[in-house]
């Protein structure tokens, strides 16, 4: 009798179901947790649990003894992981306790011998007798129902195997053969199918075989059904089932009342390729083609080229309705529409398709052959070649190509959203016009088609058109186009290397992304790409000239040859990349020793240099735009680097308080704007609002492209550098400002607080400004 306070639930540790009282852990697991408090990953079930001295969890120790799992009892290296069994209820059995595996002692030696004997028996049984329709537990309900594929090999594997219920079925076979005078060959064939059905019954763990499973038999399903019924081994379906597709002949006497044939499935007409609906008359020729065949004369169709068909005027029935269209528009290649042979309710011949009158607008004559309708999906997706389309447009009369009404409305809407585009430079509108002319505006367009079209000519653009179509719900996105550009470059670079070397470098990439054996902060693909660009010349030289097939063959001599003759930043970058590569491979246990372990990276010997005064004179006057003047102020006064200037946000600018917030990862650095920078920031915000009043880009600095881009990208470094006067760079202005402050104060702490730089960087600038104060004195 279960206590009313007890609740049936799953234990949080062993996942077994039992009745628990005021706890979520069963009694056995409480004692196990107290005895073995250390947690880890069980190698057998791959779950986090409390592990004993054998390194196994409690459910796995129980399963090893219940299942006689000799591989894991002996701790073999090639033992594969196992699944955890579902335990419902609990019973006391000394043989299933989660006791440690005995190894090493005198008693352990005897136990080990017993496990080795079981392992030998299990492996011999697996080799001698392959598992085919292995008997299941009687009465057990399967969790998933899977379709069985029975073949002649399955029948051969059952030869000589004892099958439960065979004696009763054998008597039923002999009785049926005697009663109806059937041959010994029939008895042999039916006996094979009956044994196969009984083996399926054992594999399902059922007392009686469900009648629906007889569909999996190779043949004689109706005879096997009758025999199993006589033997009491069949679970009948609510309605009698039929397993033969053909009508049973009169020589099948054991079927007195056969079940009706199943309804016929849809099929295609052999002559016109029209689809015949389900439930129609038998055969593979539709009714119209049956009447068409009554006409005299067979031959080769002049349109589709098929031979042996009933033709009229040189055309078969499927091509005959297109005779007027072919005369009006001759073409070398012709196609026919997909047809469903449905009753139309009227008789007579199949009328020809009308050609049209002379008042058809020019759009119909110049439009493509077919436009996909709304909701219609293509049968096959083939990558388009847009070169013939552009050649066709060049041969057309001057002016825009003819568009349908919905297409013209889309083009006008797209032009309304881009008022700043110059009339002579309408590559975005031209791209959309070509797409809608050729593909129509009724169905969604594939993103791959837009980029393939824009790749042919420089006067076509893809990104703005895709953004507009995506907003209108008319774009089918391609996941390959939205992959990380750095990741795509890395994969293409690895594909150019030999397979073994590419696999090893790929392991280094995963380790940099912290997908290896150790966890840490993942690195970005942009940084990995920079390292790989430095490594590629050395890797290519090793694999081509040094005949290196694996990075395990690399020695310190190869490393020295790779960096030999290099100086400055080039040598420092390559040395850092080589040390990163081989350190990660050593950590992942791909190589045995690190050949770049003692490789010196070196230190930067150069010091920051000031900008000549003649270049700084009239710096703000040389900047012609509000964007250029604000960039000069941020770099030359506040010493912001270029990547921070381009990522400034409008929300971080507070003109009322005179502050500008700079985002540096999770940290924030606040700039206090003096009067000049404050006025330049105000001028820029006014200019931006007047020119791009509808822009929703959150970045403070925008350009003509980024202001109206729905993806809200940051302005590029090239745009910022182009706004500066000639001869100046962002990094040069920043270094000159910090160096000037270091010369005035000689205080590294002030530099760190004012510009947000590290202590090493601050000391470098103080050393450059005051070399006499930081020179090393001789002892």
From TrEMBL:
It comes from the Bacteria. SUPFAM superfamilies: DNA breaking-rejoining enzymes (SSF56349). One of its GO terms (molecular function) is DNA binding. InterPro entries: DNA_brk_join_enz (IPR011010). This is Core-binding (CB) domain-containing protein. It comes from Streptomyces aurantiacus JA 4570.
